[in-house]
Amino acid sequence: MELEDIRREYTKGGLRRKDLLADPIAQFDFWLKQAIDAGLTDPTAMTVATVDESGQPFQRIVLLKDVDQNGFIFYTNLGSRKAQQIEANSKVSLHFPWHPLERQVHITGVAEKLSAVENMKYFSSRPKASQLAAIASKQSSRISARGVLEGKFLELKKKFEQGEIPVPSFWGGFRIKPQSIEFWQGGEHRLHDRFLFSKDAEEWHIDRLAP
Ligand SMILES: Cc1cc2nc3c(=O)[nH]c(=O)nc-3n(C[C@H](O)[C@H](O)[C@H](O)COP(=O)(O)O)c2cc1C
């Protein structure tokens, strides 16, 4: 099998302007719910793209933990490579690849840190092992061996055997305030449908883009 022979037709029926909701967050919620209901693996997984100081882009997957009119929320280590890049340049892009539904959503926006109260609320809802792992891992730093990480985890497990685990100061969330949201639906003969919502003076404008 040659890679160039791998292709498929997109047959789910496309996306028409009349079927699009006027509010892109409502449209996103609708598609996300369909992705969850369809049983997709990791339906909330999204790629976050950031750039470093030289303009070099980086991408990685994180999990969407909330979305509303204020933006898209994910949690991470605040000393991580992505967090350092966001500190220097808060412009990011998000991408949801929902292949089985022949859909993708592409978002551009600006990241801001969540409040300590928001961080605490989510941190305390996580399983204890995840809380410990978040403390044990100095995300994105170089380590000599896996044993270092496991040793730290066991040490913390012992330390916090009883009682609540405090939210570490180096852990928290980002909210991405969207500037644009594009909905892509595969179409027959590669005639896909693309609708771009762009925010201008707090108003959303819709344009159809060529595929
Ligand atoms: C399915 C999946 C979900 C992930 N979710 C998160 C997440 O919510 N937060 C996070 O910091 N990293 C998450 N990761 C790990 C990131 O992709 C990445 O490796 C890590 O955040 C370090 O990225 P950085 O060094 O660019 O900062 C996830 C990875 C996968 C594959």
From TrEMBL:
PROSITE patterns membership: PYRIDOX_OXIDASE
Start and end residues of each Pyridoxine 5'-phosphate oxidase dimerisation C-terminal domain: 171-211
Superkingdom field: Bacteria
GO molecular function: FMN binding; pyridoxamine phosphate oxidase activity
Textual note on the cofactor: Binds 1 FMN per subunit.
SUPFAM superfamilies: FMN-binding split barrel
Pyridoxamine 5'-phosphate oxidase N-terminal domain mapped to chain residues: 32-156
Named cofactor requirement(s): FMN
EC number in record: 1.4.3.5
Keyword field: Flavoprotein, FMN, Oxidoreductase, Pyridoxine biosynthesis
Pathway entry: Cofactor metabolism; pyridoxal 5'-phosphate salvage; pyridoxal 5'-phosphate from pyridoxine 5'-phosphate: step 1/1; Cofactor metabolism; pyridoxal 5'-phosphate salvage; pyridoxal 5'-phosphate from pyridoxamine 5'-phosphate: step 1/1
Functional note: Catalyzes the oxidation of either pyridoxine 5'-phosphate (PNP) or pyridoxamine 5'-phosphate (PMP) into pyridoxal 5'-phosphate (PLP).
Quaternary structure and partners: Homodimer.
Record's protein name: Pyridoxine/pyridoxamine 5'-phosphate oxidase
Biological source species: Vibrio brasiliensis LMG 20546
Gene behind the chain: pdxH
